[in-house]
Queue: 4 jobs
Job 1
Amino acid sequence: MNTVTNPRNILTTAWAGMLAVLLAMLLIDPLQHAMAGQYEALTHTLQHDPGTLGLRVLIGMLCANTLMQVGIQMFGGPAWRSFVLVITALYGLFFLIHHVVHVAGGEALGLHTGLDVTHHLLAASALVAAYQWRKASA
């Protein structure tokens, strides 16, 4: 069996995958509402989630995600690797908590569910790869 054993490559790929999933999450509600002609409901939905503050946070996360992918490839010192491990854990934890809040709030399973689970799996693989990459520098 041919497996990839370079944690840096796995880590970058997982971050890229999380970015793709995040972009899909941002598009799914507007697309569903627009396809149904529910523009007023779309406005209400977007005001609630992500809301003004949430939109700012998402833009920051999109930027951070993109820069993280480049940073992982450009830098490799022990302090950077430790930083990447911590940020990867926090990034994954943020989305897990966000998902739990939605489920606890009664949100039904739907198209988001597959994206959420995919994001959690990517975050877990990124965390494992970040740990392995950090460990390799010790």
Note: The mean pLDDT is 93.
Job 2
Amino acid sequence: MWNIDEIEKVLSLIEVAIEYREDNHNPEALAIKITELINLYPSSSEALASATYHRDNQRRIEYNNVVSAIKNKTLGKEMAGVTSASNLTKYIDSRIAHYNYIVTKAERLNRAITHAMDGYRSILSHEKEAFKINHQNF
């Protein structure tokens, strides 16, 4: 399992790899790009799993803190009105917002890799067919 810094580094690498570049109609560049994305996909999955673990763990910690404060009647001003289930969920989600952000970003980049590979494969197929057509005329 990766720590948050490792997760964020991998997500940054994925963002760079997914970016559109001018050479995306060059078959060799496309093949390299597809290979790069294939190689990043397992890291993307690990980043998502690790981010989800950290978020869920932090949610559990925050939940236990709130429940303990409610039981001990030591609610601070920031927790006034938090005793309903829906308010408790919103309060805890606000306390773990950064973790929710990382999970959401990891999920979206994981999906983006798949979509980018599909798109690049389509462009590569188009370029391959165009090459065949251009070379049949000779």
Note: Residues 26 and 118 are 16 Å apart (CA to CA).
Job 3
Amino acid sequence: MASWFGVMLGDGQLRGQRDEHGLELAEKLIGTEGVSEIRAWIQQASIQDRKGEICASFEVCAWMIQADGRLAEDERDLFEDMLAQSDLEDSLQEALCAALEDLPSLADLEERLLHPVLRELTFGMCWEIARADGEI
């Protein structure tokens, strides 16, 4: 799953087993039609809109990580791995990592995470993060 953002934000090329596994997980969660829909959206969306939705998705994941009141190393590692695969610029990645310690407001997330398929994919990412430390 960590590699899926990289595949979505990049040229869509699968570069090895890790990307193929990420695609399989995404297809299980949102189906092949969902994968096609999100890829089409990414290609037509402005860079600003795409980054905004991806950042909102990571903010939701930050809340999931903190849901049990502790930040496990395995959860942080997976979050940072997902960020690294996202191709977001370093300043955004740093801000999102900081969100693990200082959770962002949820007040406007529903206005920033608009794409229904990306919402579903975010749920899958949250589930993977929740399982990362072996505890849910």
Note: The two ends are 17 Å apart (CA to CA).
Job 4
Amino acid sequence: MKKLFNILGLLLIVILSLFFYFKWNELKYILRFGNSKSQIIEKNINIGKISLGDSTIVHFKIVNVGTNDLKVEQTMSNCQCAVLKLKDTIVKEKDTLYVDVLYKPVEKGKFDQEVALLLNTAPPFHFLHITGEVIE
């Protein structure tokens, strides 16, 4: 019986170690001090129809609802057709961060363009979506 508990304990340690190893990038944001909280006013914006060759700017608003400064640590896009513009990377308590995304389509058809923000929040990754249809 004691041997069974030792094996189960060792197995639990191995599982927890693997979890921490593979999830450390997310856990380090959850466990650190000074995190803030954010509220994204609208995560998905449908711009309707846009002509190939045109461009549009899509505005997202993120409110700092925490007591610490909200910090944008990194921005990412899954294509060069979306360029992010930020006025500030640090937002004070109860203030608003405006994220402007310049979208210029590269092919016809329906699209769902994703833009990611890495913030000092838990969870740290926030995804914004621009959807619509590109016509000629």
Note: Helices lie at 2-31.
